[in-house]
Every structure is written in C-alpha cells, then in structure tokens.
Amino acid sequence: MAQKAVIRFEHVSKSFTSKKMNVNAVRNVSLEIQKGEIFGIIGFSGAGKSTLIRCMNLLERPTDGNVFFQGVNLCEVNNQKLREARQKMGMIFQQFNLLEQRNVWENICYPLEIAGVEKKERKQRIEELLTLVDLTEKAKAYPSQLSGGQKQRVAIARALATDPEVILCDEATSALDPITTKSILDLLKKINETRGVTIVIITHEMKVAEQVCDRVGVMNQGELVELGEVREIFLHPQSDTAKKMILFGGGIRYEEGGGTT
Amino acid sequence: MSAGLLQLFWEGIQETLFMVLLSMLISYLIGTPLGVILYVTDENGICRNTPVNTVVGAVINMIRSIPFLILLVAILPFTRFLVGTTIGAKATIVPLVAAAFPYVARMVESSLKEVDAGVIEAAQAMGSSALQIIRKVILPEAKPSLLVGVTISFATILGYSAMAGFCGGGGLGAIAVNYGYYRYDNETMLITVVLLVLIVQLFQEIGSRLVKKIDKRIK
Ligand SMILES: Nc1ncnc2c1ncn2[C@@H]1O[C@H](COP(=O)(O)OP(=O)(O)O)[C@@H](O)[C@H]1O
Ligand SMILES: [Mg+2]
After folding, report:
1. Mean pLDDT throughout B145-167?
2. Ion ligand 2 neighbours, Cβ < 5 Å
3. What are the residues of chain B with a beta carbon less than 8 Å away from any beta carbon of chain A?
4. Which of A36, A77, A189, B106 could staple A81 via S-S, CB 3.0–4.6 A?
C-alpha cells in the first residue's frame, strides 16, 4: 500500500503468565493501520481484542514483536518518549473512565494539564471541544450527573484535547443503547472526516463495525484470522469467526452487487 | 458540679484535642507518603516494586502489632530524648504518632485502592507520568474516602490518648485514671467517658457532612 501506516504491528504477541496458567491473549499479529481510516477489530468476547488495542499504546507491553507509531518503535523508546507518543493517541473506554471528582470542563482539561498547555489556550481548546461534542451546557456538571452517552462524549472530547493522530476505542459503545450508540458512532465518524483523525474501534458488535469502519480485522483466540474491507468481509467472510459473527450479529445490510449503508 | 471540676474537664478536653489533633497531623504527614508508597509499589500498582513494598509493609505491620501501652513504654527513652520529659500531653504525642502513623499509612493505602483502575488506566493512556497520576488522579479521586479515614483515625487516636492516661499522659484519659481508677470517683469517671463519646460523635458528624459535601459522585 502506498499510504502511510500510523500504527504498524510486527509479529506482536502478548501472553499473560501467572503461577497457575499461561494465556496467549495475542498471537503473532501483524497489521498496518493507515492514516485517516477507521479500522475495526471484531471478535467474540475473550478473543484478545482489548489486549491488542492496549498494545497499540503499550498499556500492555508485547511479550514479542514490535509496535510502531508514526514509524517509531514504541517498544524501544524511553518512558518520556512513550508518554509523548501516548499524548498523540487518545483512548476511550466502555466504562468511560472519567475522573469522578472533576466536572466536565476539568475532565477535558486534564490531558491539557499533562501536556503543559498554557491556561489561556486550554480555555479556548475546551470551549471548542465542548461545542464539538455538544455539551457546552454541561461544562460544570459532574460525571455522576450525566447519561452514558454524555459521559462518552466527554471522554471523546478529552481524548481529542491534545489533538491526537489516533483515537483508540475499546468497546466504546458497548454500554450504550442503540440510539446513543449511533450518535456516538456518528460523532466519531464526523471527527474522522473533519479532522482526519485515524480511529481504531474494538467491538464485539458486528453492527458497529458495519456502520463506521473502512477496514476490519477479525480476531479469534488471539489470532488475526481475517483482514479486509468491511464490505468484502460482510459479503465473503472467509473465517469461521467472521461467518459466525455475521450470523449472530443480525441484519446483514450488504447485498451482493452493492452496499446499502 | 463545682467550678473547679468544670475547669478540670475543660482543660482535659483542650489537652485531649491538642494531643490528638497534633498527633494526627504529624501521623498524616508521615503516613500519607507511606500509604502512597505501599499503594504504588503494590503488585498491581503503577510503580510496582516488590522489595520496597515488602520492606515498608513489614515495618508497618511490625509496629502495628505492638499493643499501644507496650509501645508507649518501650519508646519512653526516645520520648524523653525528643521532648525532654515523658509526662504530660506534649510527651504523649510521641507514642501517639508512633502508633498512629502506621495505622494512617494502611488507612491511606486502602482508600487509594478504592480508586477505579479504569480511571488510572485512562490517565496512563493520556501520557501521564507516575507523579502526575498520584497528584492529579489518585489522591483527588480518593479524597472522600481519605476523609472518612481521617474521622476513623481520629476515633482510634483519641482512644490511644485516653490509654496514655495510665502512663502519665494528659487530657481526659488522665482525669479518668486519676479520679476514676485511683480515687474510685465514679461520677467524674463517667463524665469523662461521656465527654470522650461526645467528642467522637461530633467529629464523626462533621466528617460525614464534609464527605457528603465534597464527594461529587453523589448528586
Ligand atoms: N491482565 C490480564 N491477566 C491475565 N489474563 C488476561 C489479562 N488481560 C486479558 N487476559 C486474558 O486474555 C484473553 C483475551 O482478553 P481480552 O483481550 O480482554 O479479550 P476481548 O477484549 O476480546 O474480550 C482472555 O482469555 C483474558 O482472560
Ligand atoms: Mg475487551
């Protein structure tokens, strides 16, 4: 491919070893995520999706292989450089993970404080982000006063605060109802289109991948068993996992000869 | 009740509060960093360090397993060295701190453990350093629970301070011992007990209200 890979995995494996057992959560995965795309990783629960996405910002350090971000091997850089790289990768989670003792404004402010952004610029940035996620009125509200969808929008604003290259989403919509899910996915799509932010979406829901992803990887038992254009995988699933996911995922929206979504 | 007795109780209360509050302050100054160290060096901590965790944990457990009265007597030379005397409220602060700081360290540790791991992970994903996570995430997020810990520690240290009355400590404890134990003055003894209970209740109440006020998890 001529495009430039933002994230590149080179034979990445991650195993968890404890006294009792040894789990190979990710096995020898190689992949490239291109700048500006929305890349999905799908698979059933326990397939290793979360571990894989956590290897992207080294929340999990791979036991084998290399992780490149913008051409830099994150497995080899020092802590300082790793933190700088992480500031260019926002992350959002299923459980939102907002600071509960900080209000919306202060939550979005957190990454700016970390990055050492000046006060005046912070204010401007936060106001802009609040407008983007449509939460200007909730600036002073605390997470406990927000709905799930609102919390995730705060999390998205927070993830965008340092103007990241990539946003990593680990089951970002799995705790939300279908309508809220759609609005969050639309927001992510808008961010991808207007800001050119690369987005990686982990999901066990076929519908989510179908709605927003350009390409998807299918995971099963730690392995990447299939990789391709969303449409291609929906139409001609090769792996058992993909076939099963489409079967159980309901509503196949792609028809032979032309997509409908 | 005679004016003299009233005066006695009033001074007892003041002395007790002086001892307990000052001991608490010093215990928290020592115990909080230790609690943070225990927490971050834990197996699942952000700066996992088993040797440090084991050593600090063992020392704290050791001190905590010594009964307060024995600790008080055992460190008498140290108390004399620091304060110049082993009698009175000021001198009691030394054993109180010695007994309370390990307790506070464990208290702080357990409050910090209540902070949601997901929030810490999010902070790491945003590129925070360990120090930033401690200062800006863990401690502020644990604030309500830390405050609950303060009220519990207060009751414990107040209890210790009363025990110290047996060994020349000042405050209400000394009054209870001198009048109730040595002179069989049950009335004075009873009043002291009631006063101690009231002080604990008062602080508990203030603590709970404060926690409610600062905790943003409740609307
Ligand atoms: N920290 C961990 N320690 C031990 N095992 C883990 C850990 N994290 C994940 N695993 C195991 O790795 C496998 C993949 O988990 P995960 O990546 O969370 O899957 P998914 O996100 O696809 O549901 C599971 O078997 C899980 O139990
Ligand atoms: Mg998962």
Report:
1. 94
2. A 50
3. 116, 118-119, 121-129, 132, 136-137, 140-141, 143-144, 215-219
4. A77
Report the CATH number at residue A234. 3.40.50.300
pLDDT reading at B85 higher than 60: yes
Task: Pick the residue whose CA is nearest to atom 6 on ligand 1.
Answer: A16
Q: Tokens at residue B113, please?
A: 């453990």
Domain assignment of residue A231, given as a range: 1-88+171-180+197-261
Q: What is the DSSP letter of A4?
A: P
In this structure, what token pair is assigned to residue A226? Answer: 């299939």
- Tell which CATH classification among 3.10.105.10, 3.40.190.10, 3.40.309.10, 1.10.3720.10 matches the domain B3-213: 1.10.3720.10
pLDDT(B151) > 80: yes
CA distances from residue A73 to A5, A7, B23, B130 in whole angstroms, order as listed: 13, 10, 51, 22
CB atoms inside a 10 Å sphere around CB B168? 16
- Mean pLDDT, residues B116-140 taken together: 97
Q: Of A145, A229, A249, A43, which is closest to residue B215 (Cα–Cα)?
A: A145
d(CA B122, CA B134) in angstroms, rounded, equals 13
What is the chain A residue with the closest CA to B137? A99
Structure tokens at B154: 């207060």
Q: Is residue A9 part of a domain?
A: yes
Domains contained in chain A, number: 1
Assembly ipTM: 0.91
Q: Among the listed ranges A98-112, B34-48, B161-175, which one has the minimum average pLDDT value?
A: B161-175
| pTM for this entry | 0.92
Residue in the block written with tokens 């000021």: B90
Kindly indicate the confidence band of residue A3, based on its pLDDT and cuts at 50, 70 and 90: low
- Helices and strands, counts by H and E, chain B: 10, 0
